[in-house]
Specification:
Length: 263
């Protein structure tokens, strides 16, 4: 539900910036983006068509790595808090945004029979702008601790909190970092191509299990044709790589196609 400056309900997190993500057909999107959607209450206001500010309280959903022997998951009871400040121009089609995230991540130490809450945080800088009328640039980079479940690749596992070395029953919030860049070029108003490149890095304080994710690389190039105002078709080549802490890695190559009818 949207009423004036307020949004209440299921929506994209205030910490995310979908407009700064390069267009891709791949449903998961670049592996370095922030794309979490959840129940929230958000206030957003635009000043003089140039400045945008927003703040929200969002339904928490942490993903700690617990083993149910030394550590256990607790119910998330404190909302995640997100905020942003944005400067925009070109009728709102170009902008620079700084976003922040604050989380309170609970878990239970089964050895000491105590509950603990770890502070998690994230910061993101994002932008999209036109270089010339036919060429637009996209970019975002974020870093944080305990914000992994908001990110692309790391949300597939429990990386918000992980075991603290030589401290049985204790967890901590590891650092994660990602960057995404892209470009969109219009050959004509109804025909355009996009390029997207991204990297996601997991940066714990020490090397965890050998099969744990270390970094991922992502690349996509595509072509879209707006056949009519309601019908768009496209094709895309996608390449990706994952490397683990023990040096093992895997590569993937894929071709995507899209047929979209809007109504």
């Amino acid at each position: 539900v949207v009423l004036d400056d307020w949004t209440v309900g299921y929506a994209t997190s205030t910490f995310a910036d979908p407009d700064a993500e390069p267009p891709v057909i791949d449903g998961a999107g670049p592996n370095g983006d922030i794309s979490k959607t959840q129940v929230l209450v958000r206030w957003l206001h635009t000043y003089k068509d140039r400045w945008v500010v927003a703040a929200s309280a969002e339904m928490p959903s942490s993903q700690p790595a617990v083993d149910d022997h030394q550590t256990a998951k607790c119910k998330d009871y404190i909302p995640d808090f997100a905020a942003l400040g944005q400067y925009q121009w070109d009728g709102g089609n170009s902008h620079v945004r700084l976003s922040g995230l604050l989380r309170f991540l609970p878990y239970r130490d089964l050895i000491e029979a105590k509950n603990h809450t770890i502070l998690g945080w994230g910061v993101q800088l994002s932008t999209t702008f036109k270089v010339v009328p036919t060429l637009s640039i996209f970019g975002l980079t974020n870093i944080g601790q305990g914000h992994s479940s908001y990110t692309g690749d790391l949300s597939i596992d429990n990386f918000d909190l992980i075991a603290k070395k030589d401290s049985p029953g204790r967890l901590y919030a590891p650092t994660a970092f990602s960057v995404t860049v892209g470009a969109q070029y219009f050959f004509r108003p109804d025909l355009y191509a996009c390029l997207a490149l991204a990297e996601q890095r997991f940066l714990p304080n020490y090397n965890p299990a050998d099969n744990t994710y270390k970094y991922g690389l992502y690349g996509a190039v595509n072509l879209f044709w707006e056949v009519t105002p309601r019908l768009t078709v496209g094709a895309e080549y996608l390449a990706g790589k994952r490397k683990n802490f023990n040096g093992t890695h895997g590569n993937a190559n894929r071709i995507d196609a899209m047929f979209q009818f809007a109504f």
